[in-house]
Specification:
103 residues; alpha+beta; four-stranded antiparallel β-sheet
């Protein structure tokens, strides 16, 4: 997929935090990290236009294109299965929308 297809008219939404990175997903399903070290004291909204994250999308896309020859859909299946299990996570690990729904 071309970079323009990943950002044009797309929104990036926060998914989870792991390994010192905030992971976001675009509307078309592309998952990418934003390293905490590069964020500093910046406030990052839960979702925003994907073009604002172009630096991170490009960097991650280039790294996966050059090192990964497998289909990324397998990774997305793992994420989908993990999100189905969110109901069993402790309340402090659940995404905010799940916590508010349970209140």
């Amino acid at each position: 997929m071309k970079l323009i297809d990943l950002i044009k008219n797309q929104k990036a939404t926060f998914q989870y935090y792991r390994d010192k990175a905030l992971w976001f997903q675009t509307d078309n399903g592309f998952l990418f990290p934003v390293p905490i070290d590069e964020v500093g004291t910046t406030t990052i909204p839960n979702s925003d236009k994907a073009i604002f994250f172009m630096r991170y999308i490009r960097k991650y896309k280039d790294s996966t294109d050059s090192t990964d020859s497998t289909d990324s859909s397998d990774f997305h299946k793992v994420i989908e299965n993990a999100s189905k299990e969110v109901e069993t996570w402790p309340i402090w690990l659940q995404p905010p929308n799940k916590v508010m729904a349970n209140s």
